[in-house]
C-alpha cells in the first residue's frame, strides 16, 4: 500500500488479529469446534429416546431450517464486520454490542468447566489400560471424583489430587496452542486432531461392531418409531441437539469467520461444516449403540435398560463395557482418547472467543491477549473444579449456561437482526456475493421465524419444567441453584450490557483498518441490501465490495 493512498493518509493502522491461511484451515477449525463431547455422549441417547431411526427426519429438518441458517448468520456477521463477537456486533449496530459481550461471558463459563471433563477423560484413558475401575465403575467414579451430590452439595475446596493435576495440564496445553496464534495454533491443532479423531473413532466403531450383541444395539438405535414424529417434544429435542452441537450463537463461528479471506465461499463452507458434524454424530451413535448392545446381552437385559447419556455414559456405562468386552483396553483408549481430542478442539474454540474479544477491545498482541485472558481462566477453573463440589458445579453451570445463555442469546440475536435492525438483506447479499449456495427468502423464514419460534418454545418449556418440578434441579440445595444457576445466568446478560457501555480505548481495534489494511464495512442499512449503500462508501478493495 503506497503512502499516497487514502488509507495511509487517514493515519489508521491495520488490526493485527491473525487469519486463517485458507478455507481448508477454517473448515477444520470450525469442525473441531462443532464436533465436541455432545456429539459422542449426547446425540445417541437423544436419538434413541426420540424415535430411534425416525429421529433422523426431524434432526435433518432442524439442521436445514435452523442449524445451517444460523451458522450462515454467524459467518456473515463475523466475516463482514471483521471482528470478535463484541466488535462485529457493534459494527453491525452500535446498540447490539451487548449481544457480543453476552456471548463472550457464556464462553467464559463454559471454558472453566469444560476443562474438567477433558481432564477426567484424560485420566480414564490411562485407567483403561488396566481397567482400574474393577467390577463397579459407578463406585469407582464416585471415589475418583469424591463428588458431593444431591442435598450434600456445598461450596467446598477439598481438592482431588489426580484431577487437579490433569486440569492444570489441560490448561497448560490450551494456553500453548492459543499463544501460537490463529493459523499456527487454532487451525493447525484442528487440522491434526480432527483427522486423528476420525481415524480413532472409526477404529472404535469397527471394534464395537464386532462385539457380541452389537447388532441388537444398532437395531434399537435405528429402528424407527414413526409415531414419535407426532410428538412436539421430539421436534424440540431435534432442534435442541442441533443448537448445542453446531456451536452457533455463542460467538465461536462468528469469531472464526472474521479470520477468513474476503473472497471465501461462506455458504459452501457452512454446508461442509454442518453435514460433517452431523455425519460424526451418526458415526458416534453407531459406535455407542454397538457397545451398549454388547452390554445389554452380557447382562441379559433390554438395550433400553443400559442406555444413558452425558457423564453417566462416558464414565460409568462405557467403563463397564470396557471391563467385560474382549480387547476392552483398546476400546477404552480409543473412546476416552476421542473424548480428549473432541473436547480439546472445542475448548480451544471457546477460549478463542474470549481472547479475540479482549484483543480487539484493548488492541493487544496475540500473546498478551492470550495470557491476559487465559491465565485468569485457568486459575479460576483450577481453583473451582478439581474439588469435591466440581461435578455439581459443572452440572449446574452447564444446564443454565446452555439454556439461559446459548438458547437465550440465540433467540435475542435472531430477533435483533431480523426485526429490530432489519439487517437480513445486507447479510443475505454478503453471503450470496461469493457463496456457492445463494440464500434468499427461505433463509429469511428460517432465521426470522422458525429459529426464534423453536428457541422460544424450548426456553419456555425448560423454564416451566424447572419451576414446576417437585424437587430442585438434581436435588441440589435451593441456594446453590439460585447462586450458580439463576443468578449466574442473569449475570451473563447483565455483564454483557455493562461491558457494552464501557468506552473503547484509543488503541483498540474499533476504528482501525481490518487485518488486510482495508476499511471496515459500514453498518447494515435497515431493510436494504448492499446495492443500497451510498456509492461513496463502496470503494474498490473494501470488504463490502468483496474485491470483485
UniProtKB/TrEMBL annotation:
Record-linked InterPro entries: Na/ntran_symport (IPR000175), SNS_sf (IPR037272)
Record keywords: Membrane, Transmembrane, Transmembrane helix, Transport
Statement: the UniProt record of this protein carries the keyword Ion transport: no
Location of this chain's protein in the cell: Membrane
Residue ranges, annotated region (Disordered): 513-548
Keyword Transmembrane: yes
Major location category of this protein: membrane
Membrane topology: Multi-pass membrane protein
Chain ranges passing through the membrane: 20-41, 53-77, 98-122, 159-180, 192-215, 235-259, 271-296, 329-358, 370-394, 400-421, 442-467, 479-502
Protein name (record): Sodium-dependent transporter
Organism this protein belongs to: Brachybacterium hainanense
Amino acid at each position: 500500500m503506497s503512502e499516497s493512498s487514502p488509507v495511509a493518509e487517514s493515519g489508521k493502522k491495520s488490526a493485527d488479529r491473525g487469519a486463517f491461511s485458507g478455507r481448508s484451515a477454517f473448515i477444520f477449525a470450525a469442525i473441531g469446534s462443532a464436533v465436541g463431547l455432545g456429539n459422542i455422549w449426547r446425540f445417541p441417547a437423544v436419538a434413541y429416546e426420540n424415535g430411534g431411526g425416525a429421529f433422523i427426519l426431524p434432526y435433518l429438518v432442524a439442521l436445514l431450517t435452523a442449524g445451517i441458517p444460523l451458522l450462515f448468520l454467524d459467518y456473515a456477521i463475523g466475516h463482514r464486520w471483521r471482528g470478535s463477537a463484541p466488535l462485529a456486533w457493534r459494527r453491525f449496530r452500535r446498540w447490539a454490542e451487548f449481544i457480543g459481550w453476552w456471548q463472550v461471558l457464556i464462553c467464559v463459563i463454559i471454558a472453566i468447566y469444560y476443562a474438567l471433563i477433558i481432564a477426567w477423560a484424560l485420566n480414564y484413558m490411562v485407567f483403561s489400560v488396566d481397567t482400574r475401575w474393577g467390577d463397579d465403575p459407578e463406585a469407582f467414579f464416585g471415589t475418583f471424583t469424591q463428588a458431593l451430590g444431591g442435598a450434600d452439595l456445598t461450596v467446598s475446596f477439598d481438592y482431588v489430587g489426580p484431577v487437579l493435576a490433569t486440569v492444570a495440564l489441560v490448561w497448560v496445553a490450551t494456553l500453548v496452542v492459543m499463544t501460537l496464534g490463529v493459523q499456527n495454533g487454532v487451525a493447525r491443532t484442528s487440522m491434526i486432531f480432527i483427522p486423528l479423531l476420525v481415524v480413532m473413532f472409526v477404529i472404535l466403531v469397527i471394534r464395537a461392531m464386532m462385539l457380541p450383541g452389537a447388532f441388537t444395539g444398532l437395531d434399537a438405535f435405528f429402528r424407527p418409531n414413526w409415531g414419535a414424529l407426532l410428538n412436539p417434544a421430539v421436534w424440540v429435542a431435534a432442534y435442541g441437539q442441533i443448537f448445542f452441537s453446531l456451536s452457533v450463537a455463542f460467538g465461536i463461528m462468528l469469531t472464526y469467520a472474521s479470520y477468513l479471506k474476503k473472497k471465501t465461499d461462506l455458504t459452501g463452507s457452512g454446508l461442509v461444516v454442518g453435514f460433517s458434524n452431523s455425519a460424526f454424530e451418526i458415526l458416534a451413535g453407531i459406535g455407542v449403540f454397538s457397545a451398549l448392545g454388547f452390554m445389554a446381552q452380557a447382562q441379559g437385559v433390554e438395550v433400553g435398560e443400559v442406555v444413558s447419556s452425558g457423564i453417566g455414559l462416558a464414565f460409568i456405562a462405557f467403563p463397564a463395557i470396557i471391563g467385560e468386552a474382549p480387547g476392552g483396553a483398546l476400546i477404552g483408549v480409543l473412546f476416552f482418547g476421542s473424548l480428549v481430542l473432541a473436547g480439546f478442539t472445542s475448548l480451544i474454540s471457546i477460549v478463542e472467543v474470549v481472547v479475540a474479544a479482549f484483543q480487539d477491545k484493548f488492541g493487544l498482541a496475540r500473546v498478551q491477549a492470550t495470557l491476559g485472558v487465559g491465565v485468569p481462566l485457568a486459575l479460576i477453573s483450577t481453583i473451582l473444579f478439581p474439588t469435591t463440589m466440581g461435578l455439581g458445579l459443572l452440572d449446574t453451570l452447564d444446564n443454565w449456561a446452555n439454556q439461559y445463555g446459548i438458547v437465550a442469546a440465540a433467540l435475542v440475536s435472531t430477533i435483533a437482526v431480523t426485526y429490530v435492525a432489519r439487517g437480513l438483506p445486507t447479510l443475505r447479499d454478503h453471503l450470496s456475493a461469493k457463496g456457492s449456495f445463494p440464500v434468499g427468502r427461505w433463509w429469511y423464514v428460517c432465521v426470522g421465524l422458525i429459529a426464534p419460534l423453536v428457541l422460544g418454545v424450548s426456553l419456555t418449556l425448560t423454564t416451566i419444567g424447572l419451576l414446576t418440578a417437585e424437587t430442585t434441579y438434581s436435588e441440589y440445595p435451593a441456594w446453590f441453584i439460585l447462586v450458580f444457576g439463576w443468578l449466574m445466568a442473569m449475570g451473563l446478560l447483565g455483564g454483557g450490557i455493562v461491558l457494552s457501555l464501557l468506552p473503547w480505548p484509543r488503541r483498540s481495534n474499533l476504528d482501525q483498518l481490518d487485518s488486510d489494511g482495508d476499511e471496515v464495512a459500514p453498518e447494515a442499512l435497515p431493510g436494504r441490501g448492499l446495492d443500497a449503500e451510498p456509492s461513496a462508501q463502496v470503494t474498490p478493495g473494501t470488504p463490502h465490495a468483496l474485491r470483485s
